[in-house]
Amino acid sequence: PVATVCARDGVPCAAMLSCLSTFECPTATPTIIFLVDRSGSMSGSKIDAVQAALHFFIRSLPVGVQFNVVGFGTTHVLCVD
């Protein structure tokens, strides 16, 4: 497994974990799901840090990788339905 942590002002604000199998699988393009806490406790600089981390991770995705963003708080919202 490989873990990547994004920090803002020295404070970790997001993490990504990649696990690779040790067995042979057909080549497939993954779909990445980003979960974003949008609750009231994330207001201000916290949500700004999440936004910066999300931009970082999305820009880091290889060409052709599909992704979606799921925001949750009182309710959940899909970026792409």
Describe the structure.
- The structure is a single chain.
- The protein is an alpha+beta fold and 81 residues long.
- The radius of gyration is 14 Å and the shape is globular.
Instruction: State the helicity in percent bands.
Output: 10-25%
Largest sheet: 3 strands, mixed
Q: How many beta-strand runs?
A: 5
Mean pLDDT across all amino acids: 83
Low-confidence stretches at least 5 residues in length (pLDDT < 50)? none
**Spatial gap, N to C terminus:** 30 Å
Global structural class: alpha+beta
What share of residues are in beta strands?
A: 35-45%
User: How large is the count of helical segments?
Assistant: 1
Order of helices and strands: EEEHEE
Q: Main sheet: which strands, in order across?
A: 3-4-5
Q: Characterize the overall form.
A: globular
- What Rg, in angstroms, do the CA atoms define? 14 Å
Topology diagram in text:
Blueprint: E1 2-8, E2 11-18, E3 31-37, H1 45-60, E4 66-72, E5 76-78
List keywords for this structure.
globular; 5 strands; single chain; alpha+beta; two-stranded antiparallel sheet; 81 residues
